[in-house]
Design brief:
Helix content is 21%, strand content 45%. It is α+β, with helices and mostly antiparallel strands. Strands 1-3-4-7-6-5 form a six-stranded antiparallel barrel. A hairpin with a 2-residue loop joins strand 1 and strand 2. It is globular and about 50 Å long. This is YwpF-like protein. Pfam families: YwpF. It comes from Salinicoccus roseus.
Length: 141
């Protein structure tokens, strides 16, 4: 098993991201085929009401490990558990890292051009999708 310190976690919620006030966190590669990664974080209770309604559901998030300057990884998994401990929340997720291949930026740019984006709108959409690591949707999907 390998483990890494989580330094930032952004949960996808209604086409936006909730940036949790991270107290501490760890991501563990369990080196299993199905749902090989476990993420456990502690955060403030600020989003307790929103988070409570998602326990037991599949969620997507961006996880940054080790240092803030690292690129975040897109994670998809089940939000298994939420426990309140000493005025903080402990959140547990099981799932997998979504690998986007070495040509993601080129594929994304090509896709956006095919969609008709130009100039400033192209740049803005490209930046937003690169930051969110969004899956490239095609008409075949």
């Amino acid at each position: 098993m390998k483990s890494f310190k989580v330094v930032e976690l952004k949960l996808e919620h209604e086409n936006n991201f909730i940036i949790l006030d991270l107290i501490d966190g760890i991501i563990i590669n369990k080196e299993k085929q199905e749902d090989p990664w476990l993420v456990e974080i502690s955060t403030s209770t600020d989003f307790k009401d929103i988070l409570q309604e998602h326990v037991g559901t599949e969620m997507e998030m961006l996880v940054t490990i080790t240092r803030h300057s690292n690129e975040p990884a897109r994670f998809k998994g089940v939000f298994n558990e939420m426990n309140e401990i000493d005025n903080a929340l402990s959140l547990i997720f099981n799932g997998k890292i979504i690998v986007q291949g070495p040509h993601y930026a080129e594929d994304l740019l090509s896709h956006l051009l095919d969609e008709g984006y130009e100039q400033e709108k192209l740049l803005n959409e490209f930046k937003a999708m690169m930051e969110s690591k969004a899956e490239i949707k095609t008409s075949d999907d």
